[in-house]
Amino acid sequence: MRKRELKNVEWSILIIAIILCIIGLVALFSATNETEHADFNKQCIWFIVSLIIMVGVMIIDYETLVKASPVLYGLFILLLIGVLFTPEINGATSWFDIGFFSFQPGEFAKIFVILFLALAMSKIKERGKQEINRPTRLLILLAILGVPILLLIMQPDYGTAAAYVVGAALMIITAGIDKKYIIVTILLIAILIPVAYNFILPEHAKQRIDIFLHPEEDPRGAGYNIIQSKLAIGAGGLTGMGLLKGNQTQLGFLYPKTTDFIYAVIGEEMGFIISAAVIILYIVLITKALFVAKTAKDEIGSLIATGIAGIFLFHVVENIGMVMGLLPITGVPLPFISYGGSSLITNFILIGILLNISSKRQKTIFVK
Q1: Rg from Cα positions in the chain
Q2: Residues near 33 by Cβ (< 8 Å), separated by ≥ 6?
Q3: What is the pLDDT of residue 188?
Q4: What angle do CA 269, 273, 278 make, to 5 degrees?
Q5: CB neighbours of 10 closer than 8 A, spacing ≥ 6?
Q6: Domain ranges of the chain
Q7: Range of lowest pLDDT (104-108, 257-261, 362-366)
Q8: CA dihedral defined by 137, 140, 142, 144, rounded to 10 degrees?
Q9: Are strands 96-97 and 102-103 parallel, antiparallel or unpaired?
Q10: Is the pLDDT score of 80 beyond 50?
Q11: What are the tens digits of pLDDT across the range 25-51?
Q12: Are 229 and 323 in contact (CB under 8 A)?
């Protein structure tokens, strides 16, 4: 990477990601106190590995990654098929257990679905601006998106599937889809939600929605996690109960406190100030990603950055929303904060791509 490109890089994106990781590691250190910090130690290793991989992604031109995306997309489709035949973990077949690392292809596939969609959209638009609105072209895009989503639903992993949908939706809007398609889609969703609830969703998924609406109906069963999460956040007050001092966190009432409910740990032990700061950092991160999309040198870079912003947006809103009892529990990790090697590496690869795109822009045009 040349010196001029290094100057153009939106370094604030990386700084925010690292700050979020540090907050996550502090929370994880406290949450793993009874296990002698085993997951904390692993996460520290994955943090270092993630930064190294991110640097590699920054060095490779994102256009090269886009050209390779069809092959990588195909490879991860095969992995998503293969993972269906692995043993269930917590009721899902989402991981390849390779000893020291539980490899989750659904997380990594986000990267290549976004890249391949951006490539397909750019090829379609090369034939004309209105080509993106032709039904046959939209069907191609829906097929690219639909295959991995179908495989994720079969695991089942509805949360990750929804992240794909949000990222792709923002990309299609950025590509210039006609408003009539957006209106029709919204109407279809409004119709399909009750249909899916009554006739498609399995019982455990319906139960999560029911408990989200009325957690007090089963306080010792399905509603337990939401209730304990709310108690933890409420007990934190303004400045928190202090590290290693949270009742729900340290006495084992909060579960799973290192992944899905790590934000509740932050709320209980670090308080409202740090919890609010985390949300502000995410808002700035997503805004910066959209700024990279706006200032990218070409449309394909803009589409990729928009898709990445969409994925981060969904994960943040869904995770914090479910922890606070505002949204149903889906098992979606909080970016850079929740424990998990696959999630952390994937997020830093996405950060590396954003930095890569920002380095290629003509920043002097925008700052004078």
Answers
A1: 21
A2: 244, 250
A3: 86
A4: 90
A5: 288, 291, 292, 354, 355, 358
A6: 3-361
A7: 362-366
A8: -140
A9: antiparallel
A10: yes
A11: 999 999 998 888 889 999 999 999 999
A12: yes
Phi, psi of 213 (to 5 degrees): -75, -35
At 248, which amino acid appears?
A: Q
Amino acid at 90: N
pLDDT of residue 366: 40
73-78 own/partner pairs: CB under 8 Å, 24+ apart: 73/109, 73/112, 73/113, 73/115, 73/116, 73/144, 75/112, 76/105, 76/108, 76/109, 76/112, 76/148, 77/109, 77/147, 77/148, 77/151
Residue 367 is predicted with a pLDDT of: 39
Tell me the residue type at 357. Answer: I
What digits encode the pLDDT tens for the residues 215-260? Answer: 777 777 778 888 999 999 999 999 999 999 999 999 989 888 999 9
Q: Which residue has the tokens 């690392």?
A: 101
Provide the pLDDT for residue 1. 63
CB-CB neighbours of 205 under 10 Å: 16
This prediction's pTM: 0.91
Q: Could you tell me the CA-to-CA distances from 218 to 90, 227, 255, 330 in Å, in that order?
A: 20, 10, 16, 18
Q: Which residues contact 347 (CB under 8 A, 6 or more apart)?
A: 17, 50, 312, 335, 336
Tokens 């895009």: give the residue: 141
In the chain the first and final C-alpha atoms are separated, in Å, by 23
**Burial (0-12, 13-18, 19+ Cβ within 10 Å), 99:** exposed
What does the pLDDT look like over 264-293, one tens digit per residue? 999 999 999 999 999 999 999 999 999 999
What tokens appear for 245 in the block? Answer: 């001092």
Does residue 364 register a pLDDT over 60?
no
DSSP 91: T
Q: Which token pair is 158?
A: 């509805």
